[in-house]
Amino acid sequence: MECKIRHWKIEDAEDLAEALNNQKILDNLRDGIPFPYTVEDAKEYITTILNADKEAIYAFAITADDKAIGSIGVFRQVNIHSKTAEIGYYIGEPYWGKGFGATALKQTCDYIFQNTDIIRIFAEPFAYNISSCRILEKCGFEYEGTLRKNAIKNGIILDMKMYSIIKEKAV
Description:
Blueprint: E1 3-6, H1 13-20, H2 23-26, H3 39-50, E2 57-64, E3 67-76, E4 84-91, H4 100-115, E5 120-123, H5 130-138, E6 142-153, E7 156-166, H6 167-170
Parallel strand pairs: 4-5
Antiparallel strand pairs: 1-2, 2-3, 3-4, 5-7, 6-7
């Protein structure tokens, strides 16, 4: 299976709902995503992304043989951090451990560094999410430190890790 990133299409809604309707995935994402996650939720998300500010939000479907199996997004920061962006991603559980996360992350960082003026991309996975940390490290992100007691997820106070990649190091 070939993994590629591409812009979202409204036709991806069923695949997105299938991938994201999984509590194991939601446990590693920020709050605000409904569960169960429906096709209507997916259509609303895709429509929002397609209408978003193209200079601030770069969101892509992660695909395997053109089927949407996950999502990856880069979100430009503001003010003095305007050349910095946060990245977040997930892959549907049937596709875990097959290299799709690293492939999509590399493709996305390459796209951002080649097509925008962003010079730093960072990620903040939960400290317990070893798989995500490994993906980041495999793609050249450097561990910058632990953000102690930085989040509350499912009623539990959690540490997060800070990773980043700088444009000069990625090229």
